[in-house]
Every structure is written in structure tokens, then in C-alpha cells.
Amino acid sequence: MANDKTPMQLIARGVLSENPIFRLALSMCPAVGISTTVMNGIMLGIAVLFVQVFSSVTISIFKNLIHPRIRIPTYTLTIATWVTVIDLVLAAYLPEAYAKMGIFVKLIVAFAIITMRLEMFACKEGVKDSFWDGLGMGIGFMVGMMVIGMVRELLGSGAILGYDVLGFKPLLFFILPSAGFFVVGLMMAFFNWIELYYKRSKGVQ
Amino acid sequence: MKNIITIVIRLTVSCLLAATVMGICFIFTSGAKKHNEHVQEQRVMYELLGFKAGAEIPSSMALHEVYRYVVTAGGKQTIAYVVPQGGGKEGSLFVSINLDGTMAAQKELPLSEAQALDAKARLAAVTAAAEPGATVIFADQTIVVTKDGKRIAYILGGKFQGFKTFVNVMLAVDPAFTILGLDVLEHEEDPGLGAEIDQDYFKNQFKGKPFEALKNIDVLKAPIPDDYLQALNGKVGEEDVQKFREQYKDKAVYALTGATISTRAVADGVKGIVTKFAYRINVLDKILKEQQLTVSF
Questions:
Q1: Confidence (pTM)
Q2: Can you tell me whether residue A50 is helix, strand or coil?
Q3: What is the average pLDDT value for chain A, to the nearest integer?
């Protein structure tokens, strides 16, 4: 099954039409749990981006050597290896970034989105396409986390990126994990509505 | 059957491969990681003592490490301390104290302050000094800060249960056990809720709390008054900060919004660390005085 999309289309697909959070509805746990501020969203997004790209490329290189029966354990192993390597390298050479990102990096092992991209894409396609797909999915995830983080930070703590913009806290409820579901749900509806609107305007039913 | 064997072999090979990659990475990075942790610890320590990054540390100030061990021999426990020797002598003292606060044994250890920093060499020396056949377990270490030979502060480390896992903190207290500073080194509380314990406005609430107030510390479920919050965030002048500290020093700690359990855990944890330390250092001081041992602090 050859892939006929250009790198740009692969990236655009990850961000828009197959956005991991809003369209594929994967990795909802972090989306709901961590995205209380924009900064958290960006940090987790960067971490996921790296792990996704590295894992996609690795699996794509070794795709012919992986026994189909044990592909899921192999994916998990690959992701865990990359997470550990990134964790160690960050702790050793970028201690300041690690102080902020350390806790997020460790969370990634259990992310559904990465395993799913390996299963759906990287194990069938070439190395280059897998790289672009991983990049697109990573960016898509980051954008999703940032948008959710923005809504929750603004409504929950009245701030954006730590800067107080409203001067008061409108709804503390939005900081709590349960509010994450509401925000994600509304965002999904919004994305679907945009798609519908776009298709209608093009005259497609 | 053949299938199973291939699967087993392939999975084993992948695991070995992954282990090799992780192992190599660990070997290359562990040195730098340890170094970073050490630098970080030093920075936090000086910040707690009031020296911001880059500030000059007066040469009359000295740090002395005191190590505490639990020695078990024949069903009897003693607490052993390794303290740097004073009076111009190199080397450390091994002071062992019974649980009822009386002297058990004391010996000179051929360990200079620099050598004592190495955990392995220290443990070997303590084991040699203890009774034969005793089990020696490292408990904790405290740093006594002196200036011109007089004690100005203690630096304590400690761990306690937070809302989720352990919270690792470092504390500086003055000789009367008033808190000079608190820093949270490690925690895994909820982002946006309990994780606020590492924010300045929370940590600074503990600054200047006297020992008596800390013994009965309570958590108040109310929003922090605006003017106090400004002061805690360091947005007002030094004088005003002092004024607020004086005003609130005997009051309860304000709970973090939505994270009362984390707040209470930190308050109780800090209280535990300081009260236990106050008891221990008093016992140690008494023994040192009775036995007329000279130490470097």
C-alpha cells in the first residue's frame, strides 16, 4: 500500500483532518489531565513530537523484521526505549528543560496515539513518509493540547502562558480534570462543524 | 510450535536491543546527570540561605555536613553521627547515642570533611567504628552553616507523603528553628492543583514561621488576601515583605485552591522534619557538651 501524499499533505492531515485529539479522539487521558495551562500543553506536545517521530522512523526501518504476532509489544518496546533515551539525555544535557518537561516525558510510554500511528502507518510505509506522518501527528497533538490548554487556563485561572490577562478567575472548575472532557467535547463539535461547513460551501453533501 | 520459538527469539532479540540502547545511553549520561543534580542542590541550598544565583558567598561562611546512621547490633539500636572534628584537627568524629539520649560510644574517624562526602567510604568507616557484626543504615544528613564559627542556619532535607507520591523538600532553619526557606525539590502532584506547592507564593508562606507556630501549624481553607499574595510573590518592596511576614508568622497556612490535601501534607511534613530535627540536634548538642568533644560548628 503505497502512500501517494506529499510531505505537506501528511503534515496537514495530522494537524487538521486527522487531528489526534479532535478527530481521532486518541490520548484523551493526557489531553484531559495535563492540559491545564498552555505551557503544559506545549511541553507535552514537544515531548510527544520527538517520541512520535523517532518511533515512527525506527519502526519503519525495521518493519520487515517484526513478526506480525508480536508487533504491539515491539511498538511498546520501541516507544519505551525512545522515551528513556530522551529522558536521560534531557536530564544530562538540558537540566533546565528537564526540570519543566521531565514529568511529561515519562508519561508518554502509555500514549495511544503513538502506538496507533505505528500500527496504522509506520509499519506499512517508507521511512521518509513515516517521518512526515510522525511530524504531522506530533504537531497536531501539540496544537490540540495548546488549544485546550488555552481555553482551560483562560477560564480556570484567568491567565494565558502564566500572564494574568483577566485579573480574576472566572471558573475554577476548568482546572479540574473533569472539565477537560467538556472542553475536548466542545472542541470536537467545533472541528466537526468547521468540516461540515467547509464541505457544504463546496457543495458536497 | 515453530511459531512460538520464532516469536520468543524475536522478542528476546528486540528486548536485548532495546536494553543495549538504553544501557549505552545511561552510561554516557549518568555522569552529567549526577553533576547536574549536585549543582542544582548547591544552588537551592544557597538560595535558601538568601544568596541568589551569582551572589557572592562570604568566605567566613562554612558548611559542615553531619551524617546520621542507625546502627543495629544484637537487637539494640543506637543512633550514630559522623561530625567533622573541630579545634583545627582534620578528621571526623563518630558519636553513637542510645535511644534514651545517653552516650554509647565515640571514636575518631580518619575521614576528612572532603572524604566524608563519599557515601561508600563513609559507610565503610562507620561500619568499622561500630561494634563488630552490627548493621549500619544511613538515615539522613544535615548541613550546619556557620559564619565566623557561629551557627547561623541548618539545612535539612526530607521526604514525606504528598497527595500522590513522595514530596522531596529542602529546608533552611535558623538556630532557633525558625524557617528561613523552603524549596520543593521533587514532587508528582497534579498539575494546576497540587503542583502549585512549588510556586513561590506557596513556599514563601512558610518563610519566617517560628518553631512554636510551626508545632501547631494549621491549614486555612480560604483565598489568600490580595495584598499578602502580592507580598508572597515578591511584588512589593523588601520592607513590606518583612511587615507581612511579621503579621502572618503565627497564622495558619492558606490552602491551595482545590489542593487542601497537598497543602496539609506539606505543612505536616515540614512540621515533622523540623520538630524531629530540633529534638535530635538538642540531644546531640547535649552529648557533645557533656563529653567535651570539639566539633567544627
A1: 0.68
A2: helix
A3: 83
* Nearest residue, CB atoms, B36 vs list A70, A77, A92: A92
Is B41 within a domain? no
Minimal Cα–Cα distance from B234 to chain A, Å? 16
Q: pLDDT value at position B228?
A: 85
Q: Where are the beta strands (DSSP E) in chain B?
A: 61-73, 76-84, 92-98, 103-109, 135-147, 150-161, 166-173, 179-186, 219-220, 253-254
Q: Is A94 on the interface with B (CB under 8 A)?
A: no
Which residue of B lies nearest to A40 if distances are taken between CA atoms?
B191
Write the residue in B11, B29, B192 that is nearest to A91 by C-beta.
B29
Measured between CB atoms, does A161 come within 8 Å of chain B? no
Q: Could you tell me the three cell numbers for B213? A: 507556630
Q: Which positions in chain A touch B188 (Cβ < 8 Å)?
A: 103
Q: Are residues B72 and B94 in the same domain?
A: yes
State pLDDT tens for residues A78-137.
Answer: 999 999 998 888 888 888 778 777 777 877 887 888 888 888 888 888 888 889 988 998
Mean pLDDT confidence for B213-238: 84
Q: Measure in Å the smallest separation between the Cα of B293 and chain A Cα atoms.
A: 42
Please compute the mean of the pLDDT values over residues B16-34 and round it to a whole number: 90
Tally the domains of chain B.
Answer: 2
Cell 525495521 sits on residue: A62
Please compute the mean of the pLDDT values over residues B51-67 and round it to a whole number: 79
Specify whether B176 is located in the same domain as B224. yes
Residues 6+ apart with CB under 8 A from A43: A100, A101, A104
